[in-house]
Amino acid sequence: DVQLQASGGGLVQTGGSLRLSCVAYGIDFSSYNMGWFRQAPGKRPEWVSSIGRSGGAPISADSVKGRFTASRDNAKNTVYLQMDSLKPEDTAVYYCTRQSDYASRGQGTQVTVSS
Questions:
Q1: C-alpha dist (Å) from residue 108 to 15, 25, 56, 72, 76
Q2: Confidence band for 92, pLDDT divided at 50, 70 and 90
Q3: Is the pLDDT of residue 56 over 90?
Q4: Which of 37, 115, 114 has its CA nearest to residue 81?
């Protein structure tokens, strides 16, 4: 079974930073692009960022561009999301996904940004 386990969320003040991690089990990790999504209460899932198989040239949604950066360590089967200059509207559950397939998400991690 494929398992994607995100961690690293928490409560942070506006302007703060968090680094999310997501470990992948049961897949040939280096063969897949990886993505990050988030879902706030009462809202649809939102794509946040994606990163290629080798880790080069991650892309991000306009809402987080310049503040969030995806990276990965293929030796550790782990993808990261560095989140800086956090805003209250970034509050959501964050999930990593295989490629940009939201259905592949596993355990998410809650990020709460206080104003």
A1: 22, 15, 24, 17, 19
A2: very high
A3: no
A4: 37
